[in-house]
Design a protein that fits this description.
mainly alpha; 5 helices; 81% helix
Length: 136
């Protein structure tokens, strides 16, 4: 079993804030994707792929900032709209909304609990058990 230890309290809080921010940006992208013509989705998928390649080469020389990450997750949200609508039609809208809500609440709860109580997750099991506790 692998153990991950975070030595700085601020680092984990920033990670959870970043995850929550990217999830929120992707949600806005999904909402924008509902209004765009379906023919634009393949073009945005190519843009997304180009951004991945750009990030791979840029990361070797300099760090990639949050504006780039938020733009990428926004475009990913737009391109995810057809997939989400497919599952919403097949499984029902309720289950898709519940899955998205549990994910958003989990990241925000982890961010707030870390900020308020300075919890440190020493292993992946601690992180996953917090998700089970939240969902129950």
């Amino acid at each position: 079993m692998q153990t991950y230890t975070i030595t700085q309290n601020r680092l984990l809080g920033r990670v959870f804030l970043g995850l929550f921010g990217t999830l929120l940006t992707a949600l806005v992208g999904v909402l924008v994707g509902t209004q765009l013509p379906i023919g634009l989705i393949p073009v945005l998928s190519l843009v997304e792929l180009g951004m991945i390649v750009y990030a791979m080469f840029r990361q070797r020389t300099r760090a990639i900032g949050f504006p780039f990450v938020y733009l990428f997750t926004f475009i990913s949200g737009i391109t995810l709209w057809p997939i989400i609508s497919y599952y919403a039609i097949g499984l029902g809208v309720g289950i898709v909304i519940k899955a998205l809500a549990v994910t958003a609440v989990h990241f925000s709860w982890l961010r707030l609990s870390h900020h308020v109580r300075r919890w440190i997750f020493h292993s992946l099991a601690d992180f996953c058990s917090s998700a089970c506790w939240l969902c129950s």
